[in-house]
Amino acid sequence: MPMFYFTRLTLIQKMIISFVVSGFFLLAALIYSVASMNSMHRIQEEIARNDLTAATVTISLHEILLAQERSVGKYQILHQQEFRDQYERNSAKFLDGLALLEQVSREPAVAALVTEYARYADLVKKQFADQNVGLAVMRTAVDRMEKTFVRLRTDQQYSLECKLKASDEKASRTIAISIGLAIGGVSIAFVIAFLMIYSFATSIGKLQRATHRIADGDFDHEPGILPGDEIGALAQDFSRMAVRLKQLEQISLDASPLTRLPGNIAIERTLSRRLREKVPFAMCYIDLDNFKSYNDRYGYIKASELIKEAGQLIYEAVHTVHDPEAFVGHIGGDDFVVIITSDKAEAACRAIINDFDAMIPSYYSDEDRSTGAINGIDRYGVPRLFPLVSMSIAALDCHPGDYATAAEIATAAAEAKDHVKKTPGSNFIIIREAGCYET
Fold this sequence. Notes:
The chain contains 12 helices and 8 strands. The chain has helices spanning 2-7, 11-78, 81-104, 108-128, 135-188, 190-215, 230-254, 264-277, 291-319, 345-359, 366-371, 406-420; strands at residues 281-289, 327-332, 335-340, 373-377, 383-387, 390-398, 427-433, 436-438. Helix 12 (406-420) links the parallel strand 6 (390-398) and strand 7.
């Protein structure tokens, strides 16, 4: 009966009913999507305002703690007031950062960090008062704070992942329900509502893809949604969040604070990816020889400058061989890694060593440079003459099936590096297969 009455309606009446029904469904879909997008927008604002700030402050606090620990250690040895003053300044900075962290983070580990730092500060005061606290006690206090920092960063990362997951789930629900309501209207007035539904669904689809891409770590992805409405504003929020996440990832998760080169996590991921791709590549393990003697003679500041310059030199030398997939990483200290295609490994090793040998004399005094060596104490406490710092490179040629894991490659490269370090001066070896060395 209702269908009978509908067929008797005039075209204008049918169009009006179609517009009304279509408008009802579209209005319902719009209201729901806007409400959901506002909710997601608040989540992103909370991440930008609290989570990212908390993570950045946590990194800064850890660096300040390391600086305080160095000042205390120097004071214990030299008993100079300047190191105590350094500690006091860093302690004030730490307390300010800790107060900010308490404002923006609700993680339980923050309270634990406050407690552990109070305990550490009390031990340092006793040290400054010439009370015999004991190295083991101080080490235990520092270790407890390190563990608290690890737990805090883990909690922050988990909280951030949960919020991103909640935002993604809300976006998915918004898409499903909004499209369902829109389809109800389109089924009655498809021709009339087609353009609006198409535009709406396209924007939502782009936003969904952007959410997935950002969640997968593609922080450079642009949703391609024009600004001007709530979806555009949300897309801009996603883009700003991606930039902040990329910066945080580069600073916090892996990069060396000295050389700004990727660290162990990125090295392992790159090796594992190359193994999964089953394509030949070379893993070059780079080590500086006689670096300890240089550090003992010229001090940690000059030594740090040398490490930083060596990292930049390696990076630039590798890129002269024109391998777009080449990777340069900093394991730590004076150890570096280069992952490159097999056919370019030898050229990269020669370029690195040539540039390093040309640079290293400038880091010595005229006297040491003319002598070609410096006096120092070896690791066994025996005085001897050390040559200028040189570079040893062990290049491991990796073919599909040779190695199962990144750990196996690292172990083999370390053994090869010990072999090449026996030769004086800067040298490299290329291991085409196990036990076969080419210098």
